[in-house]
Design a protein that fits this description.
The chain has seven helices and five strands. The chain is of the alpha+beta class. A hairpin with a 4-residue loop joins strand 2 and strand 3.
Length: 218
Amino acid sequence: MTQQLVQILGAFRLEGTPVSCTPYGCGHINETALVVTDRGRRYILQKINRFTFRDVAGLMANIRAVTEHLRRKTSDPRAVLTLVPTHGGESYLHAQGEYWRVYDFVEDTLCLQLPETDDDFYQSAVGFGTFQQLLTDFPAEQLHETIPNFHNTPDRYRLFREALEKDTMGRAASVQPEVDFVLAHEAVGGKLTAMLRAGELPLRVTHNDTKLNNVMLD
């Protein structure tokens, strides 16, 4: 381990002294590593991508609030991510211009990049559905919008139309069928946002990245 990693890990309340820290997983947003201590405890260390997440404080406040809510509803410690605090009690560390967080490693689980059976898909759906159901009474208005308009479909269409008009690379005509397809579905694409604004849908916590490798299976 580098001296920087030793200092970073030393800021968190780990059980034991770290003896290794190696790259882990297939994520492409944050930098993830598996940490092992001399007491056999395993942790996940992540350097948060500060270019993707400009509001790290808001991001971590969201994670802490949601996981604490979920933990009150389950007796299985593996069912909810567990943030490891710093010695100062914070949910993340800001050091040397970067942001770091640590989770308990969730033992006896696997994460699939591709399904091995039909049941893998089914169980992932159960996981996401359970997540949504347990959060139906969470006060979603308290959450921070850490990437403004990221899930605002009407705004995505606005940007798409602007890009079409500029056609900077001169390629719009070569993909006209695809452009027509996207524009033909504009009303459908913005339906949920419109219903939310009209008060026809309640504001709820959602996962918004419901792919197989975002679920850990027992």
